[in-house]
Specification:
Layout lengths: L7 H4 L33 H11 L13 E10 L5 E10 L4 E8 L6 E6 L14 E3 L5 E4 L5 E3 L5 E2 L1 H4 L15 E6 L12 H14 L6 H11 L13 H11 L7 E3 L18 H9 L4 E8 L11 E13 L2 E7 L7 E4 L7 E7 L1
Parallel strand pairs: 1-5
Antiparallel strand pairs: 1-2, 2-3, 3-4, 5-6, 6-7, 7-8, 9-12, 10-15, 11-12, 11-15, 12-13, 13-14
Helix pairs in contact: 4-5, 5-6
Length: 359
């Protein structure tokens, strides 16, 4: 953590609801359609969606080995016109013994993946006979007796017109992910949160780059926390990161080739936050050179198994990227010790963010 309102210590507890890959191709189109698979003669939208979900995981890099999948449930999701516009399909992969789910649009002529979460149960998984609605990422609703919609994540109530919209004009025609770009650095440590997310994330990058020239995991994190003035609650100010890292590396007689935020103020080395100052191509260029990128986030809404309520103000270690027809994603280690987590490259998922690089 590096901001004073960070709630990370409370969010570090793992919960059952988990999200590792957030794939938001588009919002739903809310016009009814009878989907028919070309050349397959399938007239039942639900059957086609189920078959699609069983096959789709192998198109994604981290689930390419998922061959043996079985359906757990398929929940119809309604849109603004009170017609079924999508299905939320929970399924189980026998290869890795893992539950997962997809939300699939059925209104555009063929199934479209709206969200793919390969490591958890869906918000709709404990459904009864209620009517469920979908309004986009994190907008999962159940219809109450008075006609209002209750958000399954926040329990807040709202009218249908307030939270749903007709996305017909902006719906993409993409039906499945095709990789345009993917690289994930092999061998970057995946450390568990210790003393703060910033020293923990820095330790992953520094250990990968400098190996045996630096301390072991716990000592490395502890010394970085001290050098970066991380307080007892795990908070680290962004202005203290660069001098702290340089101080630690100097103690090991290491002079890095580069050590600062990607974008900084002209009169100082204070990081400049925001997507405009931290473009994805710059991130990709470092990853392609096998240089991990530290991502400083403020108010991030992206989620994972360890952070089901959103990352908030948090620091992670970027190890890779995935760019395809499904969207643009950074691959990170979250300090939750949960492996590779895909987070959409957007100011919604990453919040107000900045890259920090050391090598």
């Amino acid at each position: 953590m590096y901001l004073k309102n960070d709630k990370e210590r409370k969010d570090m507890r793992k919960q059952n609801v988990s999200i590792a890959i957030i794939i938001c191709i588009c919002l739903l189109m809310f016009n009814p359609a009878n989907v028919k698979a070309e050349g397959k003669g399938i007239d039942d939208p639900l059957l086609e969606v189920q078959q699609f979900v069983l096959e789709a995981p192998k198109d994604f890099p981290t689930t390419s080995s998922w061959i043996h999948n079985s359906i757990i449930s398929a929940i119809p999701l309604y849109g603004i016109n009170d017609t079924v516009s999508a299905y939320c399909v929970d399924f189980f992969n026998e290869d890795v013994k893992q539950e997962a789910y997809m939300i699939v649009n059925i209104t555009s002529g063929e199934p479209q993946i709206l969200e793919f979460h390969p490591n958890g149960k869906s918000p709709y998984s404990d459904s009864g006979q209620e009517e469920y609605y979908y309004g986009g990422f994190e907008n999962y609703y159940v219809k109450e007796n008075d006609g209002q919609l209750q958000n399954l994540l926040t329990n807040t109530l709202a009218s249908r017109d307030e939270v749903l919209w007709d996305g017909t004009a902006s719906t993409s025609g993409v039906s499945r992910s095709v990789t345009d770009g993917y690289h994930n650095i092999s061998g970057v440590p995946d450390y568990k949160w210790r003393k703060g997310c910033t020293p923990t994330s820095l330790a992953m990058s520094i250990k990968y780059r400098f190996g045996s020239s630096v301390d072991g995991q716990n000592t490395l994190i502890d010394r970085l926390a001290k050098a970066c003035v991380t307080d007892a609650d795990g908070y680290t100010l962004s202005v203290d990161i660069q001098p702290g890292v340089l101080s630690y590396l100097s103690s090991k007689n290491i002079t890095p080739s580069f050590c600062r935020a990607y974008s900084v103020l002209a009169v100082s080395d204070i990081p400049v936050f925001g997507a405009a100052s931290n473009p994805l191509p710059a991130y990709k260029s470092y990853i392609n050179s096998d240089v991990p990128v530290i991502i400083l986030m403020e108010g991030a809404k992206g989620t994972s198994a360890a952070y089901p309520n959103g990352f908030g103000d948090h620091t992670v270690c970027g190890t890779g990227y995935y760019v395809g027809s499904a969207g643009q994603f950074v691959i990170v280690h979250t300090t939750g010790c949960e492996g590779d987590v895909y987070v959409a490259y957007s100011e919604a998922a990453l919040g107000n963010f900045a890259w920090f690089i050391v090598y």
